[in-house]
Amino acid sequence: MPRPTVSLPPAPILPLSSPASRATKPRLAQPATRWLAAVFVLAVGLVSVRLSAGESPALTPEQQETLRSVVLLNPEQTAAPLYRMTYVGDYGFDAYLKVGSPTEPALEAYLRDRLPLPKQPAKATTARGHDECSAFLARNEQGHFLYARNLDLPDCHPAVLLWTRPPQGYASLSMVDLNGLGYALDEKHRDLPADLTGRIPLLSAPFVPRDGVNEHGLAVATLNVPQAEAKPDPAKVTICRWQVNRLLLDHARDVPEAIRLLASYNVHAGDSGVHFFVADAQGNSAVIEYPAGGAMTVTRNTAPWQAVTNFYLCGETQAGTGKERYACATRVLGAAQGVLAARNAMILLRDVSQASTVWSVVYDLSDGAALVSMGRRFEVPLQVSLKTPGVAMPLAVR
After folding, report:
1. 166 phi, psi to nearest 5 deg
2. Fewest C-beta atoms under 10 Å: which of 285, 313, 332, 356?
3. CATH homologous superfamily for 26-394?
């Protein structure tokens, strides 16, 4: 089956200061309870000098270029905006990996010690207890492996499609939830700040990808499971869940390397359990889990496809939710022997979606292309590519 063709002209890409973008004065979100917002909005980015009261941030030229790269990709979707940002230069993640963060307060302390903070940082509103997702591996008729994923969260969540190329790591394309960085939506406020100062929290976006793919075709995503914490190894550095995604995107070429790399760290899951779904361009995939009190477990694919939702694949009880979504995905993938065109992968994401689905993405692990649907608009996803970060085109999916 051929790849979908472009049926509409390129989507307009509007700078945030454009009069054609949303005209309502933007704001940062109001206080909430989740640690992620508190940590990463406090860590407003790798700014060159610490601020005193009333002082404007002194941004490096690379940081200014990064923040000026922010553009809106889907101005027609006022309730589910998707932005693009290209991170220029080093975001300091390798320095973090040397010390890690055994708990959320430790991560906050690490960032407070090393990063300049605004006088009154904003926090995001993020509800708890409803983070559920679905993901699967398939392949198209050309033999390219496809990594598909729904992110399901309550409420409204703007997102940024983030391009990164760290000096000592691999280039990658990832999706970041902007609500967790302090930007929320309501009926009156639907846009990011136009000034660079208001965008400073975006400089911490590389630390919190929800899913992504790198230049070698390694893809990774987090999916929630019932809370469990493996016993940490005191000889290993501990990192938190979304920093696992960044670790693998920056430093793993394939699934075997991702498993070896992750085994060298402790993982702190935060206020809920989590497992990781990784796949590569060779068709390897695995679900990496941390059952209570036990060692890291790995469930590898035994066919050219694999699916995962929100229950443990290891152990006999398989505790968790999403088994009906898992059954739907495995039934379709099994019947097709794992062969789906990218547009049909998007349709399967639609079939396993929920009312709370924030975004749906299909990554082509061979060529770095991706289809991205925001706000359950499965019929006209945007086509983007790791190779051409400035281009976004709508495709018709039938």
Report:
1. -65, 150
2. 356
3. Penicillin V Acylase; Chain A (3.60.60.10)
